[in-house]
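QA checklist item 7 of 12: single-chain prediction sanity check.
[x] sequence parsed
[x] length recorded as 293
[x] structure emitted
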Amino acid sequence: MHAIKIFLEPSHIHAYPPLLSPRLTIELMILPPLASPLTLALFFFQEDATVPPVAASSNAIMEMVRNSGPIAFAVLIILLIASIFSWAIMLSKWRRFGRARRQSQSFLRAFRKSGRLSEIASVASNYQPSPLVSVFNEINDEYQRQSGGRGTPRNPIALERAAQTASSEALTAMETHMTWLATIANGATFVGLFGTVWGIIDAFHGLGTTGAATLRSVAPGISEALITTAAGLAVAIPALVGYNQLTAQLRDFASRMDDFGRELLNAIENAALLTPPPPPDNLAATQPRPRTF
């Protein structure tokens, strides 16, 4: 049994009576008087309900990747490299930050238990991954240059500047490659969108060349083009989440270094108040050497 659909205006219904035969059925579909061209286009593009749907295969995505054009394939390669690079940055930063946090806690406990800067300076190298060690070494070196490690520092402002410089240098070292992670998080979606736009342009160009104006002919090209957008999102979303998490940890390290610098300066000032001044005859021996550049 075959069914043929014929579009008729309401004024033409009586001119074409329904024809019935054992093997042919003509269905009269009445359109409104002002049927738009879009309605006709949707009718011609619609699939026949009698055609069974094609079962989706398990390797449909891999098949679409293999059938991608050169531009889409190049975009996928770029996104793959960006994904590997971003994950390498995130894993290395998480491992480094975790070790630095543990060492900072151990160094802070050792610093608060000790009563002398010389004792802390002798074991500070054991906690070297901690950024607090850099702050301690810079302040201690400046304090040794000013007063030889005893008494009140002659220039406390210089100690504060040394603490700020050490904190800034340590934070800059920890922020290495973070700009690349931010670039991948912001640009991966646009790279994938470029591949999608190019694939859609190619699909419609092929549609115009073949002249087959059906959804079945244009759907494979569009689905292959959308693969690059999905790949761009798969690269950008983890990079964005990782960048935000790592940035929050960097802010936490910066605040910890500032707090430790103030705590160390307070400890130096309190120890200087409890230390008796040296005798006058030894004053010349305790004078620090001027810094040379």
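[x] summary fact logged: Strands lie at 2-8, 20-21, 24-30.
[ ] second reviewer sign-off
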